[in-house]
Design a protein that fits this description.
Shape: globular
GO molecular function: heme binding; iron ion binding; monooxygenase activity; oxidoreductase activity, acting on paired donors, with incorporation or reduction of molecular oxygen
Bound molecules: protoporphyrin IX containing FE
Oligomer: single chain
Radius of gyration: 25 Å
Low-confidence stretches: none
CATH topology: Cytochrome p450
Structural class: mainly alpha
Number of helices: 20
Mean pLDDT: 91
Cofactor: heme
Keywords: Heme, Iron, Membrane, Metal-binding, Monooxygenase, Oxidoreductase, Transmembrane, Transmembrane helix
Strand order of the largest sheet: 1-2-8
Number of strands: 10
Distance between the termini: 97 Å
Number of domains: 1
CATH class: Mainly Alpha
CATH architecture: Orthogonal Bundle
Pfam families: p450
CATH superfamily: Cytochrome P450
Protein name: Cytochrome P450
Helix content: 40-55%
Largest sheet: 3 strands, mixed
Length: about 500
């Protein structure tokens, strides 16, 4: 047969196939991925979940639209599947399944680079929160002592002094009786420099401004992670020159900064944490990327997390003025600030302050979908046999809010509910600092930071939500950070 008579039909078939792939690519690729990772229940029904999305699956949905997606995806039942690019992630939503999944949590592995791809790996893939096995144990043991319960208690008084100063000077016009602030802009530097102080010891103004500017570079690089697509692959190094250059500049400056801090503090007493943590790097006992990225995790990734917790606690107190006054009465009646009892008060678990802190962590978990992790064993979850080593994420709103454990008023800010709940019952009914042995390294330190800040803020100011801000149950949150930080303005009225 002559070539010219075969070509037109061949072209038509190729073009039709190309059209099918481009126009129906999402369905087409979903079918391929589904056939690769089939999960069925005992009636042989395939696990359901939202349709795969070009090009990143549900990565963006999970971080930026978590609250909306959690609600939308509820229709798929208590266990369903989403996608991080081509990697399946199983979402679990009930305390029973969280308990079943965590029955062997000492053997769990965090998913490589949190299923975030190559660019994310360059920023945080080797940090403590994402490495496993011996690498994780080695790193955790280098930092554990500095953030233990006892150490956090010891640091609480200097955190309190810093909180007092910060709140006093936070507003440009310190004489003004009333000021409107943008909550995250005004509060953000507090947890950042508090954590920096715990790592580096006292810093000069130059060191502080250098650290802040490197932090801004790191946060800006997260936009490539959120864009996904080509940035999930190493080829982006070749094709995306600007991103590669920004990454390279950040890595060089971050390494040089930590090395300088180490050199300048080697003879200090007491020895700052940076000296203890960087020494193994200089001696070749720990890879530089692991220590550098763990410092990034604590300072830059956590800037969003800690700011989120502080901004939401204050926003919720501003919106619930009766609770705010009750907390202020507790602080003032006990003469806590004047009597220097602050550290002890912040450490107590049976105070109204503690109840407000827990209630805000409950209502506003910093991530709606947790960091993916897997068990080395097959798991029976919600009627499905989930194969070993499958990434599992927990929908924290389903656990913290929509869970029947929290009763009918689970959507309201009601700190008093904690008066009647035993600590042990919170284990799988509250997500705050993680469920297993990989619990947050900085949880005691973070608690001291948040509580000290709120005590000083409420002692000096009354906090209100201005009429211009929406109050119909939903508040604005940021979309340019990976954590949905409160994006609300507050009015601060000076107290006598
Ligand atoms: C209130 C603020 C904070 C919250 C709500 C929070 C929450 C969390 C959560 C949920 C995890 C993951 C646990 C898991 O996957 O099981 C985590 C891990 C971690 N957090 Fe925090 N965190 C906060 C503040 C901090 C601070 C200030 C630091 C700095 C020291 C810090 C350092 C870390 C580290 C290093 C890990 C990884 C732990 C590991 O895998 O061993 N966190 N945090």
């Amino acid at each position: 047969m002559a070539l010219h008579s075969i070509l037109p039909p061949a072209c038509a078939i190729i073009l039709s196939l190309a059209w099918l792939i481009v126009a129906k690519k999402e369905v087409f690729l979903m079918k391929i991925f589904q056939s690769l990772y089939s999960i069925r229940d005992n009636q042989n029904c395939e696990i359901s979940g939202p349709c795969w999305k070009w090009p990143n699956g549900h990565t963006i949905d999970k971080f930026l639209d978590g609250r909306i997606k959690s609600k939308e995806w509820r229709v798929y039942g208590p266990v369903y599947r989403i996608w991080s690019c081509n990697i399946p992630e199983i979402v679990i939503t009930t305390p029973e399944d969280v308990r079943a999944f965590h029955s062997d949590s000492d053997l769990h592995n965090k998913s490589a680079s949190s299923n975030g791809g190559w660019f994310f790996h360059q920023l945080l893939g080797d940090c403590m929160g994402l490495v496993n096995g011996i690498r994780w144990r080695r790193l955790r043991s280098e930092f554990n002592h500095a953030f233990s319960y006892r150490q956090a208690l010891q640091m609480s008084s200097s955190i309190g002094t810093y909180a007092h100063e910060y709140v006093k000077t936070m507003i440009p016009d310190m004489q003004a009786a009333e000021s409107t602030i943008h909550v995250s802009d005004a509060f953000m530097k507090f947890p950042f420099f508090c954590t920096a102080d715990a790592l580096y010891g006292p810093m000069t103004e130059d060191e502080k401004s250098k650290l802040w500017s490197i932090g801004q570079q790191s946060l800006a690089l997260m936009r490539y992670v959120l864009l996904g697509g080509i940035y999930r692959f190493k080829v982006s190094q070749v094709f995306c020159g600007r991103a590669a250059k920004e990454l390279n500049t950040f890595q060089k400056e971050w390494s040089a900064f930590n090395n300088n801090m180490y050199q300048s503090r080697r003879s200090w007493s007491p020895t700052p944490l940076i000296v203890l943590a960087w020494k193994p790097v200089t001696e070749g006992r720990l890879p530089e990327s692991e220590v550098m990225q763990t410092l990034s995790e604590m300072l830059f990734a956590n800037l969003d997390v800690s700011s989120h917790v502080i901004t939401w606690l204050v926003t919720l107190l501003a919106d619930n003025e009766d609770k705010q006054q009750k907390l202020r009465d507790e602080i003032r009646d006990k003469g806590i600030i004047n009597d220097m009892l602050l550290s002890e008060y912040c450490n107590k678990k049976n105070t109204f302050l503690s109840a407000c802190y827990l209630e805000s962590l409950r209502l506003r978990p910093f991530t709606v979908f947790t960091i993916p992790e897997s068990s080395p064993s097959e798991k029976a979850l919600g009627g499905f046999q989930i194969p070993a080593n499958t990434s599992i994420v927990v929908d924290t709103l389903e656990i913290n809010v929509n869970n029947p454990f929290w009763g009918r008023d689970s959507h309201s800010f009601n700190p008093e509910r904690f008066n009647n709940i035993k600590q042990a019952d919170l284990r799988y009914n509250l997500f705050a600092f993680g469920f297993g042995p990989r619990k947050c390294l900085g949880q005691y330190f973070a608690e001291a930071m948040v509580k000290n800040f709120v005590v000083h803020l409420l002692d000096q100011y009354e906090v209100h939500i201005p009429l211009s801000e929406s109050r119909d149950g939903e508040y604005k949150s940021h979309r340019d950070t990976w954590v949905p930080i409160s994006n609300v303005k507050l009015v601060l009225s000076k107290l006598k």
